[in-house]
Write a sequence for this structure.
């Protein structure tokens, strides 16, 4: 009796599935390139416990960007890869991407260890308690030369890159 069950189960399962209606993840049809640039002024100060905690949360990557299109989708949390920003001139750091989905609303977070010295703790509001910082910056960031100014969520920058490389928000 058990042998018949093992033979029938796969057959019944395949009959119950209509391959035409099965959902499939699809890759974007068009990808484009973008260069993310951070203009960062050096900051210094005392290494307080709050600053040290911020630097620890920032991690060894220091200045880096976390793009939404590189989300680690197989985990339960939104956790994009950290991509280091490389110094290209004094106080200027950049990262280039060739895998950006075109004409799609995207976000990225930009992190800078200088921000840990400027703002190691993010103050709260009456509705929301303060939180420890992780070096996120929302100013001085551009994509393909376009300043990114629209902030969403927890200090994420919003952008849309067209197939021609033009960035909009």
């Amino acid at each position: 009796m058990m042998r018949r069950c093992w033979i029938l189960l796969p057959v019944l399962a395949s009959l119950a599935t209509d391959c035409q209606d099965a959902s499939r993840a699809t890759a974007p049809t068009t990808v484009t390139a973008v260069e993310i640039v951070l203009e960062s002024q050096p900051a210094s100060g005392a290494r307080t416990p709050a600053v040290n905690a911020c630097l620890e949360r920032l991690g060894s990557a220091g200045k880096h960007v976390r793009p939404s299109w590189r989300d680690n989708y197989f985990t339960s949390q939104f956790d994009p890869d950290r991509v280091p920003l490389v110094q290209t001139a004094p106080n200027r750091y950049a990262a280039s991407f060739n895998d950006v989905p075109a004409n799609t609303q995207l976000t990225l977070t930009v992190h800078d260890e200088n921000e840990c010295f400027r703002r190691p703790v993010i103050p709260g509001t009456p509705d929301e308690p303060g939180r420890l910082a992780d070096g996120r910056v929302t100013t001085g960031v551009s994509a393909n030369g376009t300043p990114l100014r629209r902030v969403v969520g927890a200090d994420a920058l919003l952008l849309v890159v067209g197939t021609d490389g033009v960035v909009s928000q």
Summary: DSSP finds three helices and 14 strands in the chain. The helical segments are 2-16, 49-58, 113-118.
